[in-house]
Amino acid sequence: KDLNVRQETIQTLEEKAGNNLLAFHHSNFLLDTSPKTGESRAKINYWDLIKIKSFCTAKETTQKTNRQPTEWEKIVVNDISDKGLISKIYEKLTKLHTRKTNNPVKKWAEDMNRHFSKEDIQMANRHTKQCTASLLIRTIQIKTTLRYHLTAVTVAKMSKLEDSRCWRGCGEMGILLHCWWEWKLVQPLWKVVWSFLRKLTIELPYDLAIALLGIYPRDTEMLMHRSTWTPMCIAALSTIAKTWKEPKCPSTDEWIKKMWFIYTMEYYMAMRKNEIWPCVATWMDLEGVMLSE
């Protein structure tokens, strides 16, 4: 109708090629060389046919027809009758509401039963890129944030097994949150980390979002000490990952050794970049506490 063609032309097109642009495109009405289609085209007014050909070969039209219809278009446009339309729309809305997110930080928020703001998600993503200059060490944080480590629950889903209990034999569900933070033999190490922070007079909330994702309170003082507590948390993550399937408490000595390793890597990276003094200033207090242990 927008092309100002005759009503008889519209009726012929609807009968032979469908009542929408996508159906008309798939019918190949204008290019079909069969006698039957040729007869149908002959019935159409010559000028109407030119208008239709011009419209169908336009760049904007071809882009629309080549695009696959969305689920909403399939429901609303392609259905001949309105029967069951409300039920279909309700079903689609229910699926959208219950659809699981693919964003790993949002998945962490669901596990923690918390809501992370846009700024929190940006902070976690920025933390994976800026937590350390060494890619080798940064990989530990990246794997944690991206939920890389397998758990009993994920293996059970992949292998279609019924047993999804923690591999450490505690009888709890083997989810990431439990393995990293909630398990009773992991908690002593995290408490040691926070006791070190108190020795350095750094008051940081005992929060798993800080330990696992680097999402900390928006406080100027916390920002000042970020370079100190970040390697401590990364070292703890690495130590816990080493005992992922073992029913034992992660060793404090192993954690301190991991911090010395991070310190060494940071030192040599700073030397390469000629930024040795900021590195020394950052680790000076922490080095004293580590030596005392």
Rg of Cα set: 31 Å
Whole-number total of structural domains? 2
What is the helix/strand order?
HHHHHHHHHHHHHHHHHH
Share of β-strand residues: under 5%
Which structural class is indicated by helix and strand composition? mainly alpha
Q: Which regions contain 5 or more consecutive residues with pLDDT less than 50?
A: none
Q: What is the number of beta strands?
A: 0
Largest sheet: none
Distance N to C terminus: 84 Å
Mean of residue pLDDT values: 80
Query: How much helicity do the residues have?
Result: 55-70%
Overall spatial form: elongated
Number of helices: 18
Protein name: LORF2 protein
Give an account of the 3D structure:
By secondary structure, the chain is mainly α. The chain folds into two domains: 7-98, no CATH class; 104-292, no CATH class. The chain contains 18 helices and no strands. Helix 1 packs across helix 2, helix 13 packs antiparallel against helix 16 and helix 16 (226-242) packs across helix 17 (252-272). The model has no long low-confidence stretch (mean pLDDT 80).
